[in-house]
Amino acid sequence: AAFGGAGRHRRYFKRREFIKTASYLKSQGLVEIERGGQEYSIRPTLKGMRKVLDTTFKSLAIDKPKWDGKWRIVIFDIPEKLKWSRNGLSKKLKEMEFYRFQKSVFITPHPCLKEIRFLSTFFQVADCVHIFETEKITAEEELRRCFEV
User: Fold this and answer.
1) Which of 69, 70, 131 is nearest to 106 (CA)?
2) Model-level pTM?
3) Beta strand 129-134 with 99-102: parallel, antiparallel or unpaired?
4) What pLDDT was estimated at residue 35?
5) Is it the case that residue 9 has pLDDT exceeding 90?
6) I need a surface site. Which of 18, 42, 48, 116 has the fewest CB within 10 A?
């Protein structure tokens, strides 16, 4: 809750619960807390931001609404010097149930632009990753069976 909303919504907490949670986060080195009278200012530390990114990465998934008839094709050409990024991206796309069409080509019938942008930024390869959206694809029968659409 301390990281959620980023100031977009004012949230109210029971004072005792707030102080307990804030103290715990501070003791873990995840936030810095400043108090001014009855108001508190909480900022995530670098460790806290890493925790948020790690949690976001681990829980990243794409929504699977009713198929809109479009295929999303994710392609990438990541240099050998960034092999760890290429392998990490491929592994995460498989975990997210993308179909591996070729070594660096993955397909899904589900909207995924935000998630792919997050992943390509996370792995620091945004310039190497591209997304296409199409209604026709040569392997459509196989893909329809795979995704049950």
Assistant:
1) 131
2) 0.76
3) unpaired
4) 80
5) no
6) 18
